[in-house]
Amino acid sequence: MRHSENCAETASGNRSEAAFLRERKVVPGGSMRAASWFQPHPPYAAKGEGCWVIDVDGRRLLDCANNFFSLIHGHAFEPVLEAVRGAMSKGTAFGMPTESEILLAEALAERSPRLEQTRFCNSGTEAVLAAIKGARGLTGREKIAKFEGCYHGAYDWIEVSLDPTPANWNDEAGNPASVRCNAGTPDSVLRETVVLPYDDPQRCADILLREGPSLAAVIVDPHASRAGAVPMSRETAAVVQQACRKHGIVLIADEVISFRLSFEGASPLFGLEPDLVTTAKIIGGGLPIGAVSGSRDRMSVFDHSAGKPIVSMGGTFSANPLSMAAGLASLTHYSRAAVERLNTLGDRLRQRVRAGFASSGAEASITGMGSLFRLHVGRHEVTGYRSAYANADTAKLIRRVQLAMLDENILLTPNCSGALSTPMTETEVDLIADKLVGVVSKGIGENSAPG
Ligand code: PMP
User: How far, in Å, from the CA of 416 to the mean position of ligand 1?
Assistant: First the structure.
């Protein structure tokens, strides 16, 4: 097959399957991202229209994955397309600053005084790494603290204890252990990363009292998707805030996903006053982006104007004009009213699902806040990583729900979480809720398989 040809169908007539078989030859695992892969293969996207994605087999799926919650306005949102077309017609990237980076930085600053100054990069991972580097530069300390099970991107320190199991998640004192996520992560990285419990403020306070003086940063996502998609308690947030003030630790709020929760972002909803804020996803309007923001004082750590900065931050495509233009269009249309409307739709979804589960007696629950939601199997209350942890049996059930939802033409992420986008209305939200209740209440059928 020549590279210009489309993937042909297989004997089963499935073009996604053919694409997967072809991709497997040149890409390990047959897919670029573990997060969007599932057995036997995911559907391949052909195009998107608003809240719908059409796969290469012509199937229309109601998209709750939204490229992992980055497409707040869904697919092919005309104002974003128009902005990108306009920017692209002038060239795609320059070894010079452009005015577009000023406009997006100003748009962030207008939303919250916490975002007074900004540096852009190309992903949330990069933003978090730069923020940690900045915190180390500001404090001269090496250790960082993060919450168990929370995802902040793909790199050594921030992947510590991303996915510990009951067999290894406690240290000898009963505190969360620093657990290696990838083979080969050096022991020194584990020693430099203190792990905090998401839902145990007292233990959190004790650990921070002991470790505080040696910490450069505490990184916190107050609505951590991987740790259950439950809002962090105000008590835990206050413990973190006080410890950071007391010990001179840089508080980094990772709002890569949770920025969408309010016009100003997530921190104010939890009483957090971070020193640095990392954002990505929706601030790029669907193009690659990441950002570190903070007060002029904190952000001076990256200031190169007087010579060598305390720490460096930059990259070839940082603040590229296409991402800047797309991000500005996206944020402009995510007004206070749009945020409110989407959050109200999220409340409606969760209430409808809860009522449905209650009346059918389904052993499942839904968590989330604003426009974010996640399904859990079981009747117990989910409060953080450990109660959200899926053992082999629950993981199998969650997978079956995801595949059964796909049979119903609704795309969730593989762990059955989802996000709403502004093209959605009550009609789509009720459809998602009713299908989810139907699928879960039916007993999560054995025969579901992806189309
Ligand atoms: N932080 C959080 C909270 C995230 O959810 C993610 C990605 N899902 C990242 C950081 C990393 O962002 P990216 O995938 O853009 O590198």
Answer: 17
